[in-house]
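Section 5.1 Outputs to date
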Amino acid sequence: MRLAMMTVAGLLAAGMVSADPVPVREAKRMLFAPGKAEVEILPANFLTDNDAKILRMVVSEQPYYGAIAVAPDEGLASEATVAAANHHTTEAASAAALAACEAKRKGGRRCEIVGLIRPAGWSSRELSLSSDATRGLREDYGTRGARALAISASTGRWGLGAGEGAAETAIAACAAGKGAQDCAIAVAD
């Protein structure tokens, strides 16, 4: 229970979910269409114009929300260049990309975020879900009985639950596999 409360507090601080889970009808109005993403290349004095074009082309097919990290002294073609995608915010994707880049960096300056992947037409909203979670909410959430969608802010994982114990089932589905420890209910009916 304490972990769930800390998770909700962290999500609130990040502006990712409201204090209480939102109903699906309200959530669908807040979310972007799954799929099509835009790439914003951030200013970086070590990227050439050609590097920026390559990044935009390669990353444009990644699901939102995402980020690209590069080790400045190793260049774009380095093993340390990492794209983290399909998170619930660009902040979470940035943290994941930076951590993976730092783990692979051989030396020199620390890794930097050089690109962000967001839904087409992005603007800040109260609720944001990964492209896959948005698709799951729209296609698999259901329309009758108790239902819930849980998300992990740190990993981008998510899970659905239905029927009696929907919230617990959604949290368990979110935590399964890679074992996300911060799953919390974002949508519930």
